[in-house]
Design brief:
Elements lengths: L8 E3 L2 E3 L3 E3 L22 E2 L16 E4 L2 E4 L8 H14 L4 E5 L4 H12 L4 E7 L16 H15 L5 E4 L7 H10 L4 E4 L3 E4 L1 E2 L4 E2 L5 E5 L4 H14 L5 E3 L6 H10 L3 E4 L1 H5 L3 H15 L19
Length: about 325
Amino acid sequence: MTLPVDMSTTLANAWFPTPIFTASGCASSGKELSQFFALKDVGAIVTKSVMTKPRHGRPTPRMAETPSGMLNSIGLQGPGIDAFLANDLPWLLEQKARVVVSIAGETIEEYSTLARKIRSASGISALEVNISCPNVENRGLVFACDPDASRRVIDGVRKTIGGELPIIAKLSPDVTNLPEIAKGVVDAGADALALINTVLGMVINLETMKPHLGGKTGGLSGPAIKPIAVRAIYQVHAALPHVPILGMGGVSSGRDALELILAGASAISVGTASFGNPTALITIQNELRELLAARGFATMQQAVGYAHRDETQ
């Protein structure tokens, strides 16, 4: 008989009963998924990244299937921070969900403005700062691809939000030296890291012989990017072993989740898999519990970074 596994985890000072979260952008504010399971039964709902004003997103078509994943160029469509705080956040808290609010901006000042509004809200477990957005002040260069801009965003949010709410910096894998950027945002005030965001890609429509997506390029997600996620998490955990990581990228089974945890993730976000199976989070959570028990782990946290152990262990 296998013993029960303590599945709880922490990201900085925030506690969660299980390590399986939604992925930002894939579950909006959780209302669609609530038809299939109680939102309090997963670790947390990571909301779609919200900006200061309502946003329509990029032109259609905005999604494309690929052989082992999907490409999207939604463009951060959303209601804006004021509507989110008035409608979506209270609803999530009524469901007793643990909430990680994701924010995104086009300027460093926009992130600070969002943090100022978040500061007045209660019931939030952590703040994800999605810096994988183009910086309109710097010719569209993505914040997370620019070490200085990354640090300045996190520094501004930290100074605005104060020291209580954990900050999770969401980084892009489309960089040469990810551990260096990770260290920079941690030095600037991030308590944890979200790895990885989608990988930039493109599909050409063979009928029109033009880019298929209205925004031309999009973010590749799904099974194709899992090895990139494992590599990124392993590298960053090796460089910053005490910084918790919210891992994501192509997780569609308990085995996938365990792989990211062994690489160094303390929690796992599930995104693309939910589109094909709305109960994927619950299935993955149950599978992960069984896999941990079968390998003799009494707690999920014992498995975090286990792939880094010495050869003699």
